[in-house]
Design a protein that fits this description.
Blueprint: H1 5-21, H2 25-31, E1 37-42, H3 49-52, E2 60-65, H4 75-87, E3 92-98, H5 102-107, H6 116-129, H7 131-135, H8 139-159, H9 162-169, E4 175-181, E5 188-193
């Protein structure tokens, strides 16, 4: 455990710094969670949801997986989506991918990567659907475009869930956002909102 002591020390320093900046921060945080946003993003450690949109803990509910997938048989993602919409009553579901996504890049190769190949198969399906467009591109441009197409597909998958359809039938205000983040400049680009 000694190799992780620096993380525990970091936590102590962070906690003390936060309390010094706002003595009521942890009291407010502990009372309840009422985020307006659900973030479905990539597991990539370079894309921390709270930080890149400058929100505090408790302001955004987060689900992350490799390449920000929304797969209709992924009960983890669907459970998060249902809880966010039905219990937390979020008003916005943000599917946010990022340029330079390793999962998307791996989906464009014929290499085998083990179990994750089953997961990446969904991105390969997106690539096949857009094969004519992607054939015109090479290298980084091709990966970037597939990153965008993947975000758009995953947002469409969110819209097709029974969870979102039920929320719409109930008249619950809900917008699905398709965003992509650039590691090169830290900026988000909006690909669409519905």
């Amino acid at each position: 455990m000694t190799e992780l002591n620096h993380l525990l020390t970091n936590n102590e320093h962070w906690s003390e710094r936060i309390k010094a900046e706002d003595p009521t921060f942890f009291d407010k945080l502990a009372k309840q969670q009422r985020p307006e946003y659900l973030w479905i993003g990539c597991s990539d450690s370079r894309v921390p949801a709270n930080q890149i949109v400058d929100l505090l803990p408790g302001d955004i509910f987060v689900h992350r997986n490799v390449a920000n997938q929304v797969i209709h048989t992924d009960y983890n993602c669907l459970t998060v989506l249902q809880y966010a919409i039905e219990v937390l009553k979020v008003k916005h579901v943000i599917v946010c991918g990022h340029y330079g996504c390793g999962g998307v890049e791996a989906a464009l190769t014929d290499e085998t990567n083990g179990l994750i190949d089953n997961w990446l198969g969904h991105i390969r399906d997106v690539a096949k659907q857009h094969s004519v467009e992607l054939a015109e591109l090479k290298g980084e441009a091709k990966v970037a475009r597939l990153c965008e197409l993947n975000v758009l597909q995953q947002a469409a998958n969110v819209r097709r869930t029974s969870i979102v359809k039920d929320a719409i039938r109930r008249g619950q205000p809900l917008t699905i956002h398709s965003w992509i983040y650039s590691l090169k400049n830290g900026r988000i680009t909006v690909l669409g909102n519905t």
